[in-house]
Automatic annotation (TrEMBL):
It comes from Candidatus Spechtbacteria bacterium RIFCSPLOWO2_02_FULL_38_8. It is found in: Membrane. GO terms for molecular function: ATP binding; ATP hydrolysis activity; ATP-dependent peptidase activity; metal ion binding; metalloendopeptidase activity. CDD domains: RecA-like_FtsH. Belongs to the AAA ATPase family. InterPro entries: AAA+_ATPase, AAA_lid_3, ATPase_AAA_core, ATPase_AAA_CS, FtsH, P-loop_NTPase, Peptidase_M41, Peptidase_M41-like. The chain crosses the membrane at residues 35-53, 145-166. Its cofactor is Zn(2+). Its main location: membrane. Residues 229-368 form the AAA+ ATPase domain. One of its GO terms (cellular component) is plasma membrane. The keyword Transmembrane helix applies. This is AAA+ ATPase domain-containing protein.
Amino acid sequence: MRVFLFTTQFVYVIKGLVVKQSEVKIVRIFTKLRFWLMIFVLLIFFAINQIFFSSERITETEVSMGQFINEVINHPGLENVVIKKNADILTANFNEGNLWQNSDGKKFNVVTTIYTDGYEETITQILLDEGIVLEVENDNVGGGFMSYLPTILLYLLLFGGLIFILNRQQGAANKALNFGKTKSNISKEKPTVKFSDVAGLEETKEELREVKEFLENPKKFRDFGELKIPKGVLLYGPPGNGKTLLARAVAGEAGVSFFSISGSDFVEMFVGVGASRVRDLFEKAKEVAPSILFIDEIDAVGRHRGSGLGGGHDEREQTLNQLLVEMDGFDKTGDVIIMAATNRPDILDNALTRPGRFDRQVLVPAPNTKEREEILKLYARNLPIDQNVDFRKIAQQTYGFSGAGLENLINEAGLLCVRYGRLSVTMLEIEEAIEKVMLGTERKSFVLEKRDKQTVAYHEAGHAIVAYALEDAEELHKVTIVPRGRALGYTMTLPEKEKVLEYRNSLWAQLAMFLGGRAAEDILSDNPTGGITGDNAVATQIAEKMVKEYGMSRLGRRSFVNRDGPV
């Protein structure tokens, strides 16, 4: 087994080195090619410009003032003369068909000369007497440069466009090279969440405070002896109860960097990508140590091997193998701690949860009544809450709600308050929000026929009478025949105190209460309805648990179910 693990590690290390070296070579080659390609294209463009547009270029020469007056202005091809006052320059322009020719036989379409400052009027008069078309320019600063400006701008435009295209191509190449890189969220600034921002869960926070101390002062634990700092912490529990928030709070308390990635981000359709992302994520965590590496929904990649559709060699299992290898050879100094979250610890591979990998497994349970009260106060602290709001009563009414569900409840109450134009949130909005979250929106426009309304009233009265009459039934809280969601009416019962154990008499009372609706229909009406589907489903579930799990039947104290399942 040790030989196999060593061989696996060696293969992955060699594979990683080969991939990195090939990536570096490709990037270097592309960078060199990009530079020489730009030079080549610019040279081609310059050559084409010289060949095809040289005839349209301005050919210019300069002569003396005397030659300009005696020869140049008397040439039959002269079109006009421009006086550039600020530069003290005379410019004669000739048409293309009759250019001015000097003594060497060279032809020019522009001839210039410099005159002495203060002689503009004299020169102007001479030119006018000769009948020459005269133009005067007062601003000629940078005239030589301005004549070449269009060509320069064209070159710059071409150069910029070429760089843009090549950068896009390089971006595409980088995407291909980085396909196996981690899609992780790196908190460049340390998380600001503290344990004080997490209501309840005191035992869980106590376990995690020790992890925070590992990160803050690992020397304290090393100096005590051969103590090993936990390499991994697995947070497990029902969804919506703050596993991710707790992981961020540990990073915030310790003041370290926080990496976050979902387990599903590791798995792609291409084999080997997930394993590459695992390596990349662990490398990034080491670079910014001390840090916390958090994998949410780790069951997406860490479930039992051999359970995938692709057999024992699918992409998910390769990713899991790489994760196990990385955790074995990972940071032994305690500067980086791996945290993960799941609500299905039963399906995780045993090799992942053994000591030495996820050494510490911490339960994040659903909140009890006291914790629900604290959570409600936490989420309501920034809302205008009426002084008569009883958070203790609300906590009792929200049995079974998760932390996320309580947050949604307070938010819904605030939205209702705004909708009704009220200045503060009262018990009325909160109780309506509870019903909305549990059953759906009230259907005020849905009007029942008299017969249907009577039948629904009989049905709900049956539930209520049984719940009121039985000593072991939950306390009757509300009965209504106003439709909400898919329910035409409902009877709400609440436990007097937090349930820890399921007692037989209590289960019998629940069965009787759920079946009381149909019993009332049978007694008061000779035509029962099919509106008991939900009641039958819940009653059947309770009865199955009593027989198959709790051993409360004539079959004896036996269990007929697999206890593995969601927390």
